[in-house]
Specification:
The structure holds 2 protein chains of 2 kinds. Chain A has helices at 16-22, 27-34, 48-52, 71-83, 92-96, 108-118, 170-186, 204-207, 253-256, 274-285, 291-298, 304-308; strands spanning 5-10, 36-39, 59-65, 68-70, 84-90, 133-136, 139-142, 146-151, 161-163. Chain A is an alpha/beta fold. Chain A folds into 3 domains: 5-99 and 150-186, Rossmann fold (3-Layer(aba) Sandwich); 105-148, no CATH class; 204-308, no CATH class. In chain A, the strands form 3 sheets. In chain A, strands 2-1-3-5-9 form a 5-stranded parallel β-sheet, with helices on both faces. A two-stranded antiparallel sheet of chain A has the order 4-8. Chain B has 5 helices and 4 strands. The longest helix of chain B is centred in the middle third of the chain and has 18 residues, at 76-93. Chain B starts with 6 loop residues before the first strand and ends in a 10-residue tail after the last helix. Classes of the chains: A alpha/beta, B alpha/beta. At the A-B interface, helix 6, strand 8, helix 10, helix 11 and helix 12 of A face helix 2, helix 3 and helix 5 of B.
Chain lengths: 323, 149
């Protein structure tokens, strides 16, 4: 019997998700033994035209990481959707936009201006910007069109499952791959479409070992402004920790390293907007009733959108700024 | 056609909703632009509701609760107050004028205050113009080649 086919692709991403796949250590050998890896630009030398030549639905499983930033990302998302039976948004970028989506707070023009004109190391006296099509004497050459907005994978194509995390934890990746092999080998039914795989159904706080008391915040600290007590809830100490509004599954890795949760596993079940939920939680525990004092405490939250929506802006209710 | 603001109001069951009702019963004229959603407490108004309302086409949002110290659940209105302050700061980053979100304390006996606030807020939103969140967001995409060589 022919082996099931596996494809991995990176769109607008940092490469961390690729490392997360390799981080499953010796299990990667099971993956290579069980699957026929037919497309993985980071590790193998297959071309886009090889994928285009495949019949529709011939790839059993596609793990797609990265958000949709430009026309190449979108083209590959549509291509892999057509060729794959199961398409998985792998990692926070594909799941809900992640760090690249924070660019939705500014415009394409501003980004180009910063990158191609304003940075100190840039030398561009003719003020040239990249053009999607450039005419040269041999003909035309083309580069992808940079979009105005960053989107998550499911805002462009239909997605079957999600594996959250920035990057997904290797133990969770290994468990999902094991489950997939089990399903394919033993003909078990697939989980319902839209399921979030490789994560829990509670919040990060549920996995956090710290002791919690009743929260009353008079002052917010940024992590570098305070020596955090390693045994006390970080939020109790006035450090903004996204644990209460973040899905469990990572094993509370960051808080165990005395660093607040930043929310990369996305919203917990039944929460539609992670940032709004976190704002709700934070404002409930601010210990002030006087408007002026409330304002003073809130001013200590330096970048509310970047803090509460660090990983989920593309998927949030407002999706980006109106500029 | 003249712009008619769409305003979503979240009024607490015990004070502001009853106050707005009193305004009606007393035949005090107030703008019909305000669509009221009754909640048990202003502290029940989750920031998600507010963002969702803006996303779905609200031009302004009015939250009404009991006066400080009068909350039926003792401090729900203070939670609403802190949420509104934090949300105002957030809305600026999203490019939404913070004046589109307003919190007022209106008691069950203050029908006239409701009339005044509703009239003033509707006029303010009218002068700010439509927000049209969804349309603005969608219009962003097609303009591809804004930057010339």
């Amino acid at each position: 019997m022919a082996k099931p086919k596996l494809a991995l692709y990176w769109a607008a991403s940092c490469g961390g998700c690729e490392v997360a796949v390799l981080d499953i250590e010796v299990k990667i050998l099971d993956v290579a033994a069980f699957f026929d890896i037919i497309f993985w630009p980071c590790a193998t030398d297959f071309k886009y035209k090889d994928v285009e030549a495949m019949p529709d639905k011939s790839i059993t499983l596609c793990l797609f990481n990265g958000s949709i930033r430009n026309s190449e990302n979108e083209k590959l998302a549509k291509l892999l959707r057509a060729k794959s039976v199961v398409l998985v948004a792998f990692g926070s970028c594909a799941h809900e936009g992640c760090i690249p989506a924070l660019a939705n707070l500014t415009t394409k023009e501003e980004i180009f201006k910063t990158v191609y004109l304003d940075t100190v190391s840039t030398y561009n006296p003719e003020k040239r910007f990249p053009q999607p099509i450039t005419k040269i004497k041999e003909g035309e050459i083309e580069i992808p069109v940079f979009y105005e907005r960053v989107k998550a994978l499911d805002q462009v194509v239909d997605v079957d499952y999600y594996i959250p995390g920035c990057p997904p934890q290797s133990t969770q990746v290994a468990a999902v791959i094991e489950a997939v092999i089990d399903i394919l080998q033993n003909g078990k039914p697939l989980p319902p479409k839209g399921t979030i795989l490789g994560a829990g159904d509670k919040t990060c706080c549920d996995e956090c070992p710290r002791t919690r008391e009743e929260k009353k915040i008079k002052h917010f600290y940024r992590p570098h402004e305070i020596f955090a007590d390693p045994n006390k809830c970080l939020l109790d100490q006035g450090i903004i920790c996204l644990g209460p509004a973040t899905r469990s599954g990572c094993g509370a890795l960051c808080v165990k390293a005395n660093v607040p949760c930043r929310g990369c596993y996305g919203a917990p079940p039944n929460v539609h907007d992670q940032g709004a939920k976190m704002m709700s939680a934070i404002s409930s525990v601010i210990d002030a009733q006087d408007p002026a004092e409330i304002d003073k405490i809130i001013q200590e939250i330096v970048d509310p959108v970047g803090t509460f929506y660090r990983f989920s802006l593309a998927h949030s209710t407002l999706k980006g700024a109106n500029l | 056609m003249e712009f008619e603001p769409r305003i979503i109001a979240f009024f607490c069951n015990w004070c502001t909703y009853t106050g707005a009702d009193l305004a009606g019963v007393s035949r005090l004229k107030s703008p019909a632009n305000i669509r009221v959603i009754r909640t048990m407490c202003s502290g029940r108004v989750d920031p998600t509701f507010i963002l969702k309302a803006f996303e779905l086409g609200a031009d302004g949002i009015l939250i009404g609760g009991c006066h400080p110290g009068d909350c039926h659940y003792s401090e729900g209105n203070y939670k609403a107050l802190r949420r509104v302050h934090l949300l105002r700061k957030m809305l600026q980053s999203f490019g939404i004028d913070e004046k589109r979100l307003r919190l007022e304390w209106i008691s069950a006996s203050e029908g006239d205050v409701y009339q005044h606030v509703a009239t003033e807020f509707t006029a303010q939103i009218r002068s700010l113009g439509p927000l049209n969140w969804k349309q603005r967001f969608e219009q962003k995409e097609p303009k591809e080649q804004l930057i010339a060589v």
